[in-house]
Please model this.
Amino acid sequence: SRYIIGLNYDSLYISFYTPGKMKYPPEGYTLHPIFTALPIQALTVQDRRKIDANFYLDTGAGLCFLISKKFEDDSSFLKKRRRPVSIQVEGMGGRKHMLVTLIRSLQIGPYHFNRVPTNVLDDVYNVTSYPFLGGLIGNDLLRRFNVILNYPNREVHIKPNGHFEDPFDYSYTGLSMYYADGKIYADDVVSKSPAYRGGVRKGDVIIAVNTNFSNDINVYKTLMQSVGQRVTLLVSRKGTPLILSFRVGHIY
Model:
């Protein structure tokens, strides 16, 4: 809040400016959110029906879009015939299970996104401040813009960048991983998920994905993001090597 902050997702630079008159780049759009600890922006979202609601702009959330279950329960916003799938996520509050689905469209300013991956959070502690807010936009959507956060003037400028038309990640394995003591471990594996049906179990040490032995958890996650692709894992279970295989599924 003491500076004007520029987030350039094309160059991966963060710029700090002293407060004052700011000339924004051309061909973008200036939002006028409510400013608290995080900016709060009105969005138009549509699935079963169209709704206007307020959402946090959260550059620290490593997801695309999130709504609270209370928001969904009261609005009946989601199409009922599309069954969400269960995933495990991890953040500052620890690990927890969450549902993920798609929504038909989301509009921020003049910009539209279709078939947006959406997490549904059973927000027991109401961190999303429902009913004032419906949830949040995360970094997987915000990174599609170069963003200027102007807290002093209560403005956020967004300009589509080279990632604007990047495809959303619709993959689903049901497998979460973590890195500890130089090894990559399978964490909770969602029952009946592709990874579970392929034989992956909690505690397996993941040695390789396909033919990649890099021991890089981000590389392994990337190798399991192509919907419909069959992946092969070499794992160690209680010291015994196993070769497991499954096909990456859809989140819908």
In short: The longest helix spans residues 69-75. The chain has four helices and 20 strands. The longest strand covers residues 94-108.
